[in-house]
Amino acid sequence: MQPIILYQISSSHFVDKVRWTLEYKRLPYTTVAFNVLGNTPGLERAPSNMQKLVPIIEDPNNNNKFISDSTQILIYLDEHYSDATNQLFPIALKQQLINYCIRLDSSLGLYARRLGYLQLLNENPTILNVIIEERSDDGWKSYFKGIAKCCIIIARLRIHRIKEDQIYEKTENLLTELTEDVRGKEYLFSNQFTAADLTLCALVRLLVGVPYFYTNPKYQILFQYHDRMRKKHDPHRQASLAERLLAENRRKPPPSKFKLFLQRINIVKFIFYYFMTKIVNWVYSGDNEQRYQFEQNSSNSRAINDQQIVDTPTTCLGAIGFFIKYYCHLLFTIPQQIRSLDQKITSRTM
């Protein structure tokens, strides 16, 4: 059997869902890093009408068939490479499981992606280029490419409008529901590990890196369920590059109490950021319109994708204006979004 080709951004939780499935079924596979800003080797063979969004698999054992969309990939792999010990969509539950997975893809998957990027952009935005290109480079070129990709990510996923889109509240409500779904159960459906368990754990993984949710006592049952599924059914999983870099960043010594004190009493800096945040919000208040790149009606076969249309600047002046706009959001709006989470943590502990 020839290895299946997985086109990926390794930090993607949707990719993790497919990677887990391939390993759970003990299928050989190779990976190709997806080029966000250019051509990806191998994808020139893919059908022209296929969405070029990761994850994508190419199966050389079936006339180099290409499949995109994580749930559709799981269905394909289960139909072509299953036995009694690793079936993820049992016949009696198949449509129910498909509907459940697509629902999670269209809600939890999108919320967690936006919140995960928000946390990353707040902690260390310059590592984004390393994560996407999946290679380490500490030079200035990597720094500026990382900042440029931050601007594109903010625009495409509306990271600067998480509070306004009520993503915190939607995620809280969904996690509360999912916590009740897993309470007192070994598995979500029947008495076996299915695509529903795998999908839920793969998608909730990004929220492990968001302290507001991961440390919230309300959701501990859900995260304990995630840890149990990983230990039992994904024991060989290694931390992604994004997880390793964030862990390394968090191991750095925190600022001294004296330095923190100086930061708090730095009135000039406080006033500057306060007014700049107000100015940025006022100048760019008109970009609240959502312009989805893909159809927003979920079907029985595909999940919703919330990526926005980003108008590609056609002139040098237009490109400068685009990056100034979203760099301002990175400097002033993103910290404001994080402060909203910090305020929720503070109110929770009072």
From TrEMBL:
Transmembrane segments: none annotated. It comes from Rotaria sordida. Residues 2-85 form the GST N-terminal domain. It comes from the Eukaryota. This is GST N-terminal domain-containing protein. InterPro entries: Glutathione-S-Trfase_C_sf, Glutathione_S-Trfase_N, Thioredoxin-like_sf. SUPFAM superfamilies: GST C-terminal domain-like, Thioredoxin-like. The lineage of its organism: Eukaryota, Metazoa, Spiralia, Gnathifera, Rotifera. Belongs to the GST superfamily. Pfam families: GST_N_3.
